[in-house]
Amino acid sequence: FRKGELRIQGLTFEDAGMYQCIAENAHGIIYANAELKIVASPPTFELNPMKKKILAAKGGRVIIECKPKAAPKPKFSWSKGTELLVNGSRIHIWDDGSLEIINVTKLDEGRYTCFAENNRGKANSTGVLEMTEATRITLAPLNVDVTVGENATMQCIASHDPTLDLTFIWSLNGFVIDFEKEHEHYERNVM
User: Fold this and answer.
1) Where do the Ig-like domain residues begin and end (predicted)?
2) Domain total for the chain?
Protein backbone atom coordinates (compact mmCIF):
# COMPACT_ATOMS: atom_id res chain seq x y z
CA PHE A 1 0.00 0.00 0.00
CA ARG A 2 1.06 3.56 -0.65
CA LYS A 3 1.49 5.78 2.38
CA GLY A 4 -1.84 7.13 3.51
CA GLU A 5 -3.92 4.71 1.41
CA LEU A 6 -6.72 2.65 2.94
CA ARG A 7 -7.92 -0.30 0.88
CA ILE A 8 -11.06 -2.28 1.78
CA GLN A 9 -11.70 -5.61 0.05
CA GLY A 10 -15.05 -7.38 -0.27
CA LEU A 11 -17.15 -4.39 0.79
CA THR A 12 -20.31 -4.98 2.84
CA PHE A 13 -23.00 -2.55 4.01
CA GLU A 14 -21.27 -2.45 7.43
CA ASP A 15 -18.29 -0.71 5.78
CA ALA A 16 -20.40 2.34 4.91
CA GLY A 17 -19.82 5.46 6.97
CA MET A 18 -17.66 8.53 7.51
CA TYR A 19 -13.92 7.85 7.30
CA GLN A 20 -11.30 10.19 8.69
CA CYS A 21 -7.64 10.40 7.73
CA ILE A 22 -5.25 11.98 10.24
CA ALA A 23 -1.80 13.15 9.11
CA GLU A 24 0.58 13.97 11.92
CA ASN A 25 4.21 14.98 12.37
CA ALA A 26 6.30 16.88 14.89
CA HIS A 27 4.88 20.21 13.70
CA GLY A 28 1.19 19.43 13.97
CA ILE A 29 -1.79 17.40 12.89
CA ILE A 30 -4.40 17.73 10.10
CA TYR A 31 -7.65 15.88 9.36
CA ALA A 32 -9.60 15.00 6.22
CA ASN A 33 -13.05 13.35 6.05
CA ALA A 34 -14.79 11.32 3.36
CA GLU A 35 -18.05 9.40 3.28
CA LEU A 36 -18.16 5.89 1.86
CA LYS A 37 -21.55 4.87 0.48
CA ILE A 38 -22.29 1.27 -0.50
CA VAL A 39 -24.49 1.04 -3.59
CA ALA A 40 -26.53 -2.04 -4.43
CA SER A 41 -29.31 -2.24 -7.00
CA PRO A 42 -30.85 -4.77 -9.36
CA PRO A 43 -30.20 -4.22 -13.09
CA THR A 44 -32.42 -1.61 -14.72
CA PHE A 45 -32.59 -0.31 -18.30
CA GLU A 46 -34.78 2.69 -17.45
CA LEU A 47 -31.98 5.24 -17.88
CA ASN A 48 -30.15 3.51 -20.72
CA PRO A 49 -32.34 1.14 -22.77
CA MET A 50 -30.99 -0.71 -25.77
CA LYS A 51 -31.47 0.99 -29.13
CA LYS A 52 -34.78 -0.14 -30.63
CA LYS A 53 -33.27 -0.25 -34.13
CA ILE A 54 -29.66 -1.20 -34.88
CA LEU A 55 -28.23 -0.97 -38.40
CA ALA A 56 -25.38 -3.16 -39.62
CA ALA A 57 -23.65 -3.09 -43.00
CA LYS A 58 -23.65 -6.33 -44.98
CA GLY A 59 -20.34 -8.12 -44.49
CA GLY A 60 -19.32 -5.65 -41.78
CA ARG A 61 -19.09 -5.64 -37.99
CA VAL A 62 -21.67 -4.44 -35.49
CA ILE A 63 -21.54 -3.93 -31.73
CA ILE A 64 -24.87 -3.88 -29.86
CA GLU A 65 -24.41 -2.16 -26.50
CA CYS A 66 -26.06 -3.38 -23.29
CA LYS A 67 -25.48 -0.94 -20.44
CA PRO A 68 -27.97 -1.30 -17.59
CA LYS A 69 -27.46 0.39 -14.25
CA ALA A 70 -26.59 -2.32 -11.71
CA ALA A 71 -24.55 -2.90 -8.56
CA PRO A 72 -22.78 -5.21 -8.21
CA LYS A 73 -21.78 -5.66 -11.87
CA PRO A 74 -24.24 -8.07 -13.52
CA LYS A 75 -23.64 -11.18 -15.57
CA PHE A 76 -24.80 -10.87 -19.18
CA SER A 77 -26.41 -13.24 -21.64
CA TRP A 78 -27.97 -12.67 -25.07
CA SER A 79 -30.66 -14.24 -27.23
CA LYS A 80 -31.74 -13.83 -30.84
CA GLY A 81 -35.45 -14.52 -30.85
CA THR A 82 -35.71 -17.63 -28.65
CA GLU A 83 -32.16 -18.84 -29.39
CA LEU A 84 -29.58 -18.36 -26.61
CA LEU A 85 -26.33 -16.97 -28.07
CA VAL A 86 -22.86 -18.24 -27.14
CA ASN A 87 -19.40 -17.05 -28.10
CA GLY A 88 -18.27 -18.39 -31.45
CA SER A 89 -16.27 -17.49 -34.55
CA ARG A 90 -18.61 -14.61 -35.52
CA ILE A 91 -20.31 -13.76 -32.23
CA HIS A 92 -18.68 -12.50 -29.04
CA ILE A 93 -20.19 -11.28 -25.76
CA TRP A 94 -17.84 -8.78 -24.13
CA ASP A 95 -17.31 -8.39 -20.36
CA ASP A 96 -19.15 -5.05 -20.44
CA GLY A 97 -22.24 -6.78 -21.87
CA SER A 98 -21.84 -5.65 -25.49
CA LEU A 99 -22.59 -8.14 -28.26
CA GLU A 100 -20.27 -8.13 -31.28
CA ILE A 101 -21.14 -9.75 -34.62
CA ILE A 102 -18.66 -9.86 -37.49
CA ASN A 103 -19.25 -10.66 -41.18
CA VAL A 104 -22.91 -9.67 -40.83
CA THR A 105 -25.34 -11.48 -43.15
CA LYS A 106 -29.07 -11.27 -43.84
CA LEU A 107 -29.56 -14.23 -41.46
CA ASP A 108 -28.35 -12.05 -38.56
CA GLU A 109 -31.38 -9.77 -38.83
CA GLY A 110 -33.90 -10.08 -36.01
CA ARG A 111 -34.75 -9.28 -32.39
CA TYR A 112 -31.83 -9.33 -29.95
CA THR A 113 -32.36 -9.35 -26.19
CA CYS A 114 -29.75 -8.62 -23.54
CA PHE A 115 -30.29 -10.21 -20.11
CA ALA A 116 -28.51 -8.78 -17.06
CA GLU A 117 -28.56 -10.44 -13.63
CA ASN A 118 -26.88 -9.82 -10.27
CA ASN A 119 -27.60 -10.89 -6.70
CA ARG A 120 -30.26 -8.16 -6.45
CA GLY A 121 -32.38 -9.14 -9.45
CA LYS A 122 -32.52 -9.26 -13.24
CA ALA A 123 -33.77 -7.27 -16.24
CA ASN A 124 -33.66 -7.38 -20.03
CA SER A 125 -33.90 -5.07 -23.01
CA THR A 126 -34.56 -5.77 -26.71
CA GLY A 127 -33.62 -4.19 -30.03
CA VAL A 128 -34.03 -5.12 -33.70
CA LEU A 129 -31.00 -5.58 -35.95
CA GLU A 130 -31.47 -4.64 -39.61
CA MET A 131 -28.93 -5.14 -42.37
CA THR A 132 -28.04 -2.48 -44.92
CA GLU A 133 -26.01 -2.71 -48.08
CA ALA A 134 -22.40 -1.71 -47.47
CA THR A 135 -21.25 1.64 -48.86
CA ARG A 136 -18.55 1.20 -51.51
CA ILE A 137 -16.50 3.59 -53.63
CA THR A 138 -17.25 2.55 -57.22
CA LEU A 139 -15.26 5.31 -58.91
CA ALA A 140 -12.30 6.60 -56.92
CA PRO A 141 -10.50 9.90 -57.63
CA LEU A 142 -7.48 9.53 -59.95
CA ASN A 143 -4.11 11.23 -59.72
CA VAL A 144 -4.17 14.40 -61.82
CA ASP A 145 -1.29 16.46 -63.27
CA VAL A 146 -2.47 19.99 -64.03
CA THR A 147 -0.60 23.07 -65.19
CA VAL A 148 -0.61 25.84 -62.60
CA GLY A 149 -3.49 28.27 -63.12
CA GLU A 150 -5.75 25.73 -64.84
CA ASN A 151 -8.84 24.01 -63.43
CA ALA A 152 -8.89 20.40 -62.17
CA THR A 153 -11.83 18.04 -61.74
CA MET A 154 -11.75 14.94 -59.51
CA GLN A 155 -14.60 12.42 -59.40
CA CYS A 156 -15.82 10.17 -56.62
CA ILE A 157 -18.85 7.87 -56.99
CA ALA A 158 -20.18 5.46 -54.36
CA SER A 159 -22.89 2.82 -54.16
CA HIS A 160 -24.96 2.71 -50.96
CA ASP A 161 -28.12 1.42 -49.38
CA PRO A 162 -31.08 3.34 -50.91
CA THR A 163 -32.76 3.68 -47.51
CA LEU A 164 -29.83 5.71 -46.15
CA ASP A 165 -28.51 9.15 -46.98
CA LEU A 166 -25.00 9.48 -48.39
CA THR A 167 -22.64 12.38 -47.81
CA PHE A 168 -19.37 12.99 -49.63
CA ILE A 169 -16.60 14.68 -47.64
CA TRP A 170 -13.45 15.87 -49.39
CA SER A 171 -10.22 16.61 -47.56
CA LEU A 172 -6.85 18.03 -48.57
CA ASN A 173 -3.80 16.57 -46.78
CA GLY A 174 -6.04 15.36 -43.95
CA PHE A 175 -7.97 18.62 -43.47
CA VAL A 176 -11.66 18.66 -44.43
CA ILE A 177 -12.47 21.18 -47.17
CA ASP A 178 -15.12 23.74 -46.16
CA PHE A 179 -16.92 24.44 -49.46
CA GLU A 180 -18.84 27.38 -48.02
CA LYS A 181 -15.76 29.23 -46.83
CA GLU A 182 -13.66 28.31 -49.87
CA HIS A 183 -16.35 28.52 -52.58
CA GLU A 184 -14.16 30.76 -54.78
CA HIS A 185 -11.50 28.05 -55.01
CA TYR A 186 -13.42 24.77 -54.64
CA GLU A 187 -16.74 23.79 -56.21
CA ARG A 188 -18.69 20.65 -55.38
CA ASN A 189 -21.00 19.13 -58.00
CA VAL A 190 -23.34 16.45 -56.65
CA MET A 191 -24.81 14.24 -59.38
Assistant:
1) 43-130
2) 2
